[in-house]
């Protein structure tokens, strides 16, 4: 019960924030599930930041933490309510998406995959309630220091012991410790519940975003593939930080694509910035992702829309990012400035060591072929699917291009971290490459299905949803958004 | 290329694509269920819970905070690293140092304490059961 309350308070914070930052129009019924799934990560991330700040300010005195969170939630709900009262309906009548034959055919397999995924998750969690090696070796261990440590919680960064990943940010550990504070016990139910939420919220956000921006059938196919990926569920139930990180990567890219279709892009961009910031607060890889995102956003927006538009978009993005980044910067400067993966000593020697490139390329090739522990290799299936259905020729592909470039640059960054690492290369590839692939996997799936034609479009022979498929609710929404008189065409 | 875009072939292409993805996904879900069916075990029988039970007495004897040194079981060097990680988790928020250079020390010998290893180097302060010993360095 207390665990549910702690998670609900975090969810409430996230949902209220999403509501405040989203459009001043009444949200479409179709938007609400996506907002709800995004709120899961946003709420858990925001509450972990507050928990960390509480520790820094008040140390071991946690009695008032829950009261303070309830006060924050009340304020946010009040602001969201005021926002809802001021908003006006965008559509005079609710939009009904016409029933597609593909949609009806796809629902049953997705439900089967969802049930199988939930059963597999619960079996993995029952077999290893404390998670896998890195969970009890690092993430939950740090959570124990934060929760059980009282005034000694800083011992988690002690150089006296052999504490793992002292430089890693605290989102996951602080979230677990926060739930334990509510429970008054370090029960493994808390990390299991958090892992469950991140795993299934990722699948939910993937489905809802594609259902909103493309079509319901497209969302169903993407969710089916994600839920049927065995390693995605193994890693989810392992209670590692890679799945929360993949959630924040996906959310950032989804919100970027959504902002292109939104009448009030500022709020959506602020949310995207907050999600990117929470990725930095989850794992060090998040910092690389943020850098790649800012570079891609700069390159594409300036080239396509010019400097003025870039400045207009950058401001809300940074406004969402900055509060999280300030806390992360404080954490890094005071507790964890050193990273163990990149050592400048011998860096140039390793960069010139070409056999290392060969080793990394060969490991990545093999890793992609056997990706996700599928019984059958999935990349050829995905390539065949895209070739058979074709790509859509949508006019506004800027956001998708930014997303693609961000994912590609992040993958390139991972490549060079492997090439330049001072740690044993084979060991590092073996232990981390599948996890790094999973970090980018939901975003890659989203972009593949965002850019490929939907079954309805392919059957209709049109690659432009705006031309022939105007019955589709998502497209109608998009068209009406575009017709919104308050927005200049350039800002979109 | 007109034949490629004909309604029949379009339907054929889409149906083939769907069968490929749906088939692969459902087969994967089935394989996942089959693989995890053997994982079912009674609650509390996992290795971390078992390790925590081993260290339950040690947690009562040792201070709650501060630092303790750790003497791994050198007779099983492959498993020693994992044992250390498990011990560190079980004893948190005590900082466990993986070098026997401070007192008190926790000796972790899941297979029983090897007398030849302890002799001369450490004095046993208390046997905490299950192969866990509270030690002190000799000559200190």
Unreliable segments of chain B (pLDDT under 50, ≥5 consecutive)? none
**Unreliable sequence segments of chain A:** 462-492
Q: Classify the beta-strand content of chain B into a percent band.
A: 15-25%
Show the largest interface: A-B, 58 and 48 residues
Fraction of residues in helix of chain A: over 70%
The helix tally of chain B amounts to 5
Rg of chain A computed from alpha carbons, rounded to a whole number of angstroms: 22 Å
Radius of gyration over C-alpha positions of chain B, nearest whole angstrom = 27 Å
Helix content of chain B: 40-55%
The biggest beta sheet of chain A is recorded as:
none
Described by the principal axes of the CA atoms, the overall outline of chain B is: rod-shaped
The gross shape of chain A turns out to be globular
List keywords for this structure.
heterodimer, A: 492 residues, mainly alpha, globular, B: 140 residues, alpha/beta, 5 strands
Walk me through this protein's architecture.
- The complex is a heterodimer of chains A (492) and B (140).
- In chain A, 73% of the residues lie in helices and 0% in strands.
- Chain A has helices spanning 2-21, 31-58, 65-86, 101-127, 133-148, 171-183, 189-213, 216-227, 230-237, 242-259, 265-282, 285-305, 307-334, 347-351, 354-369, 378-389, 398-420, 425-451, 455-460, 465-468, 473-482.
- The termini of chain A are far apart.
- Chain B starts with 6 loop residues before the first helix and ends with a strand.
- Chain B has helices at residues 7-36, 47-54, 56-61, 77-91, 115-118, and strands at 67-71, 95-97, 105-108, 122-127, 132-137.
- Chain B is rod-shaped and about 90 Å long.
- With 140 residues, chain B is of the alpha/beta class.
- The interface between A and B is large, with 58 and 48 residues.
């Amino acid at each position: 019960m207390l665990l549910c309350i702690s998670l609900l308070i975090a969810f409430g914070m996230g949902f209220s924030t999403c509501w405040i930052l989203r459009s001043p129009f009444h949200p479409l019924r179709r938007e609400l599930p996506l907002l709800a799934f995004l709120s899961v990560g946003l709420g858990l991330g925001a509450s972990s930041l507050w928990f960390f700040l509480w520790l820094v300010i008040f140390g071991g005195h946690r009695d008032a933490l829950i009261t303070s969170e309830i006060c924050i939630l009340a304020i946010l709900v009040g602001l969201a309510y005021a926002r809802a009262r001021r908003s006006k309906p965008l559509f005079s009548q609710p939009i009904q998406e016409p029933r597609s034959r593909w949609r009806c055919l796809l629902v049953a397999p997705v439900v089967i995959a969802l049930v199988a995924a939930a059963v597999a998750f619960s079996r993995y969690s029952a077999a290893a309630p404390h998670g896998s090696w890195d969970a009890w070796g690092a993430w939950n261990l740090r959570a124990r220091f934060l929760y059980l440590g009282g005034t000694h919680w800083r011992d988690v960064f002690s150089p006296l012991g052999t504490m793992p990943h002292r430089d890693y940010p605290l989102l996951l550990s602080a979230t677990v410790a926060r739930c334990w504070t509510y429970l008054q016990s370090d029960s493994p139910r808390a990390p299991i519940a958090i892992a469950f939420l991140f795993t299934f919220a990722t699948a939910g956000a993937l489905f809802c975003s594609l259902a909103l921006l493309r079509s319901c059938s497209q969302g169903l196919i993407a969710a089916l593939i994600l839920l049927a990926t065995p390693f995605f569920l193994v890693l989810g139930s392992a209670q590692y930080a890679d799945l929360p990180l993949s959630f924040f990567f996906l959310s950032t890219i989804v919100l970027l694509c959504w902002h292109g279709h939104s009448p009030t892009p500022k709020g959506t961009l602020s949310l995207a910035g907050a999600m990117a910031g929470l990725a930095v607060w989850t794992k060090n890889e998040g910092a690389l992702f943020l850098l790649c995102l800012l570079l891609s956003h700069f390159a594409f927006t300036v080239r396509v829309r010019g400097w003025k538009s870039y400045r207009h978009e950058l401001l809300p993005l940074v406004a969402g990012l900055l509060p999280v980044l300030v806390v992360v910067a404080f954490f890094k400067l005071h507790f964890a400035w050193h990273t163990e993966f990149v050592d400048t000593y011998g860096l140039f020697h390793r960069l010139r060591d070409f056999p290392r490139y060969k080793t990394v390329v060969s490991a990545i090739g093999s890793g992609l072929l056997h990706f996700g522990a599928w019984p059958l290799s999935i990349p050829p299936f995905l390539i065949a699917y895209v070739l058979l259905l074709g790509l859509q020729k949508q006019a506004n592909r800027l956001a998708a291009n930014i997303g693609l470039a961000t994912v590609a640059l992040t993958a390139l960054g991972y490549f060079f971290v492997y090439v330049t690492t001072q740690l044993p290369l084979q060991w590092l590839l073996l232990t981390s490459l599948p996890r790094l692939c999973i970090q980018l996997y939901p975003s890659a799936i989203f972009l593949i299905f965002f850019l490929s034609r939907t079954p309805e479009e392919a059957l209709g022979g049109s690659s432009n949803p705006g031309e022939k498929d105007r019955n589709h609710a998502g497209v109608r929404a998009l068209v009406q958004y575009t017709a919104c008189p308050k927005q200049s065409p350039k800002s979109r | 290329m007109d034949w490629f875009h004909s309604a029949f072939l379009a339907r054929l292409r889409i149906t083939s694509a769907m069968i490929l993805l749906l088939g692969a996904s459902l087969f994967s879900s089935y394989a996942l269920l089959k693989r995890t069916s053997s994982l079912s075990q009674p609650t509390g029988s996992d290795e971390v819970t078992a390790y925590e039970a081993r260290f339950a007495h040690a947690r009562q004897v040792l201070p709650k905070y501060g630092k303790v040194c750790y003497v791994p079981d050198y007779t099983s060097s492959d498993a020693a690293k994992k044992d250390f990680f498990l011990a560190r988790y079980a004893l948190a928020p005590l900082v466990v140092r993986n070098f026997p250079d401070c007192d008190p020390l926790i000796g972790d010998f899941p297979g029983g304490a090897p007398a030849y290893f302890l002799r001369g180097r450490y004095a046993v302060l208390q046997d905490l059961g299950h192969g866990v010993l509270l030690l002190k360095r000799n000559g200190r």
